[in-house]
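User: My advisor, Dr. K., asked me to get a structural model of this assembly before our group meeting. I'm new to this, so sorry if the format is off. These are the inputs:
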Amino acid sequence: MRQFVVSGHDAPTTPEFSLDDLPGGAGRLDLLARCVTSALVLSHGIREDVRVHLVLADAYTVTFDGSSLRNFNPDERSTAARVRNALEERQEAIGHVPVETSPGVSLSRRDFAATVEHAARDGNVVQLHEDGAPVVEVNPPADTVFVLSDHHDFSGAERTVLDEVADQRLSLAPRPIHADHAICVAHNYLDTEGHTRY
Amino acid sequence: MRQFVVSGHDAPTTPEFSLDDLPGGAGRLDLLARCVTSALVLSHGIREDVRVHLVLADAYTVTFDGSSLRNFNPDERSTAARVRNALEERQEAIGHVPVETSPGVSLSRRDFAATVEHAARDGNVVQLHEDGAPVVEVNPPADTVFVLSDHHDFSGAERTVLDEVADQRLSLAPRPIHADHAICVAHNYLDTEGHTRY
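Assistant: The format is fine. Below is the predicted structure of the whole assembly, which you can bring to the meeting.
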């Protein structure tokens, strides 16, 4: 299984935001929504072996599970609506136990540390960062948990978590790219394992 | 320079569409908008050496030029609004001469064939298709013009154009991926030229 954890530092923690202003009022939820789509969709299909965890302002985590997702639309607005619907049920989430808010979508009160540590139970944590080792020169680990940040850098507390649990720190490109684009590249890197680069 | 031509078969040709329903009423303009963002943005920057051409229902082409684009937002709604604004000025576009509708954004009456042929003046045309040769095993051409299709396959007429002008037919991934994700992978492929894959 592949997992992606994306820290959305400015993301909303209540459902009172407009779907018409995802970059502004919804704290770059446009970017987080694109991350979900980049992680989950193929042409006319879903990657069933993928989970994406959006950490919302280090307070909640909304998880999309490709194996049970239904009627998923790839546009930002539809994904943002799923996040908003999940936040409407935040009172139902007790402790770290997730509540499923639609098929394949769940919300929990896990912060960044709890989400990374929980994901790490099923894989090897790789921090994606522009200062990491070039991914093309590294043997990809199995069952990877890629951890990414939004338009902000990881916070000091997040870096401390990653220093403890990350098995590798990798860079995907010589020029810094958006998190959703990094997810596409990471998928392709794993999808083409075994190919010899010209 | 890198160029991307994306054929949007169901895309609107008039500005009477809602920004609230890009996948439906606006004919998958969500996907075309993500293609523009995938082609043009870096973290906190624009790829100035890139042009993206969206072919709208084989009737108009809206071109985004990274070298002159201003105040570009990466979300789908903002890009779709630029396309809508461009279509509002379609009466100003005479013949194949483009009209600039905002800095770095222009509209012309070029159809798919005219757009591909015009782009080919500045580069080598590569058709991205799931049945092409694996890109990782091929020497990337300079000044590439990548030609992609939306959620539909290329039409018969488009394939005829590509058979005439395309220098190569390449596949980016063993599993078919969305056009905007293919653009991310194509960029990464060129960005990491010279790296030896593990």
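One thing worth pointing out at the meeting: The longest helix of chain B spans residues 76-88.

User: Perfect, thanks a lot.
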